[in-house]
Amino acid sequence: MARPTWDSDMRSAALATLDSKQWVKGAQGSAFGTEFAEHCGALTAMPCQNGSSALWAALRIAEIGPGDEVIVPSFTFISSTTCVLLVGATPVFVDIEPDYYCLDVEQVRQAITPKTKAVIGVHLFGQVYGSELVELCRKENLILIEDAAQAHGAAQTYADGSTHTAGAMGDIGCFSFFPSKNMAVGGEGGMLTTTQTQFQDRIIGITNHGRSPDLEAIQLGSNLRMSEVSAAIGRAQLRHLDRWVARRRQHAERYSEALVNQPLINAPRVRPGSQHAWHQYCVQTENPTQLIAHLDERGIDARRYYTVPCHRQQVYNTHHQFNTELHITERAAASLVAIPVMHELTADEQQQIIEALLDYR
Ligand SMILES: Cc1ncc(COP(=O)(O)O)c(C=O)c1O
Question: Looking at the 3D structure of the chain, how many domains does it have?
């Protein structure tokens, strides 16, 4: 399901950084932040430890805490929602769109209360949310935190013709560089981005104990810094990101063309105007267990994701929505299967997967 790239440039970048003995707080981290911000069109970006600490930091920067509500999806990786608990606020779970698996904007609208401070929009599987969510948050004066952990290189063209890249589609963006992601850093890693001048200094400071440039702690932060070696590897990987995402798009197109001839497996849909980053290519089928067993017999790896929606997991057993049914979420949890779409997938491997999919009865 994942095959991270490790080439001689990345190896040289890592070794040169080790040789320099500047292992923390150096030029690699700051260059990685600058280059990442340029790539996604954000005002500023700051490398950090991982996607989960980026989410925690985003909520802290937005000054969200006890008494506040944050609207989140339930069909996502657990840390998109537990970050809200970690700052003492309350996640409010809403359902997702049936076709794209991002937050259902109408349900977000209905979930807003005087306590709502922010929305965490997840670009699930590499499909970004639409401009309607951005407009709603702006109109309601809510902070939009982008969980872009799965969406490096994704973009959306809005109705006015402007195109926005993941990381610059909200107020604060959070990325993960976990090895299976569209790009990685040779270990754990994350990135914070912002489009807002008011958060610019804070996303830099929060990763370094909340200190200002003259080393006074002016906000609550921690040591969330990325190591210099990881940043150097990340810079080398970033140079390939567009090409890798283009490969994922080619794979996705090929799968979707083939699946037209398979009535038991539905190809994923793409939001109009969207440039999907295809972190995962998830097909929809009546019997996911049977499809996975069929692929497994042919030596093909396939996975189900988020089969227990977040709000139904034990960590939420005292949450008022623990027993709430979110219909589209439940349906997605029961019917999706991810098949390999990584950029390193070869044409032969993909052909075998397509043949296996078409053989499924
Ligand atoms: C949607 C989403 N959010 C957040 C995270 C957390 O990222 P990390 O594993 O780097 O902490 C992930 C990682 O899998 C993710 O997929």
Answer: 2
